[in-house]
Amino acid sequence: MKKRLSVALRIALGAAATGAVMAASGAALAADPLKIGVIAEAQAIAGASIPQAAQLAADEINANGGVDGRKIEIISYDNHSSSADSVRAFQRAVNEDKVNAVIASYISEVVLALEPWASRLKTPFVTPGAASNEISKSVHADYEKNKYTFHGYLTSAALALSVCDGAKDLLVDRMHMKTAVIMSEDAAWTKPLDIGYEECLPKIGLKVLDHIRFSPDTTDFTPIFNKIEGSKPDVIITGISHVGVQPTVQWKNQQVPIPMFGISSQATNETFGKDTNQAAEGVLYQGVSGPGVAVTPKSVPFAENFKKKFGNYPSYAGYTAYDEVYYIADAVKRAGSTDADKLVAALEKTDWEGTIGRVQFYGKDDPFTHSIKYGKGLITGLMLQWQDGKQSAVWPKDVAKVDVKFPSFIKLSN
Amino acid sequence: MRAFQILIDGFAISALYALGATGFTLIFGVSGVLNLSHGAIMVAAAVAAWAAASILNVGTYAGALIGVAVALLTAFATYFAVVKPIQDSRRIPNEEKEIFVLTGTLLWGIMIQELIAYFFTNNAKTVLPIVEGVVEILGVRTPRNEIFTAIVCCFVIALLWLLVNRTRTGKAVLAASMNPRGVTLLGLELTNIYVVVWAIYGILAGIAGVLLGMFLGVSSYSVGPLTASAFSIVVLGGLGSVSGSLIAAFVVGYLETLTAYLVSPAYRTIPALLLLVFVMYIRPQGLLGRR
Predict the structure, then answer these.
(1) β-pair type (A179-185, A149-151)
(2) What are the chain A neighbours of B123 within 8 Å (beta carbons)?
């Protein structure tokens, strides 16, 4: 009797234990974190904000209960601005760290190197800052293969449009400028940008007098500014991202009397002021958002929280990376799964009001498949200017805080 | 107008190259060390000057001094932590020491470069110029800072010439470069001479680094190109020959400036490198080389 009881007891205990283990594993399954790999240029002005902003978004989502009870875990990798390092990080993120999605890089060359890996490893991948048209064109060209890649920032073509839209109002209509010289670094993202500039600048009434492309290794910009001054344009239209500090400082030190207007990625980060010893004063640059600019109700709180946590305002890629974590989380929620194909399908239906505007992606039949849509009511971009050591919005009118003003060495010809 | 522009810009950049290369060639002449961490030491000086002035707000002059001091310390660290242990080692055969020093200083330079990138990002930094504004020279709008750079470079090089040729320490350094064995026979401690040379080198590299930071700006990416440019100038001028390096610096500086203005800024460094290859063919010892 005693023996039988003990057998029964053992069975009962065993059953209870098994049940407990099963329950525990079930709970673990539900609480399994949603892992997002973030591969970025942690040592570069524009890239440093990417992992920081992604972490900030994850912390906020987790504080509000996560995604259907699952926490978001950000795993970041420094790619040292190298494509090879990025590919290794991507492989490690997927194969070893088992991430569900990847956010990576502001450099087009890096993103173009990662795109085939997103296809091979079937992992949804969003870039917060690269611009080359080729990223989304590849998705369009071979949709089934490349559908895992999303372009979470404006294409170079859209960037050129954004700059031209701003230039029309600010430079042509208000300051009556007539001529421009394009100055851009030789990189993958500026090729389509320059084509865009060449096309849209004459349309808005700015005649392109010269077009200077220079190596991103350039350190002495004196000959370049000299050549530009020789053609006497009203404005220099910029396309710079890998360089930024040196041309800006030399522009000021040499007192080049022509304003700079266009894309200047490094200028989007608040640390640019210190890095240039405030030579940035007067530089006009395109951004998707900026400190104190309420593009949407989410923009200002994000920028302020970022500054509180990391000591400076984010670069443009910080805004996009922050939004990306949110809309990836939203897509996981809508898909009810982290299965790559289901997640891609959900991401395609994204309609998310983020810090840079309303995010939607172009579809399979659009030429820029999976790139964020550009236009009124979606994302238009804005123009900002460094004034009194701060970044202030000057265009479009509804978000502009101040008027354009230039340092005394700038001589406007009209 | 353009000719004057090339003349003025070329002079400033050449003077800066000369200053950077002088220390590099001095070390080689005296102790046979090719210091491949040269670029890293220059960048460390510029970034330190920038950080002191922009983050710690110590002011431009103090910032520049701190930059030079950091270069001096880094130069000593290079000598005592990397070069001397290799030179003193009994386990490394004498004929292999040169290659060990090359590798050691190269790796040391990469370590410094990565540290700078880690703490201060790899974006370019520019040191606030000591003198600001522009002046017109022969119709060319020239930044005062550019003139300042050229004057300081020439002044420091002249000072170095006086030090080497007119002081006792300098003469010992000169003697050591000619015949190290003879110097030890005269009762002079060779190690002391090396320390003096590394100190001179540190100060020269520091001044060159800070001036470069003011003139063009530097980033951790500049480390490799700066070492390479000093190396090619020194090889072109003749290894170990200070006057050869000075001449080579001006040849390279003007050739680069001419290319940048007349051809394209994108090809700036190419003709100078071609010239280097050409000189290696017809005169392997360099312009004023001793061997």
Answers:
(1) unpaired
(2) 44-45, 244-245, 266, 275
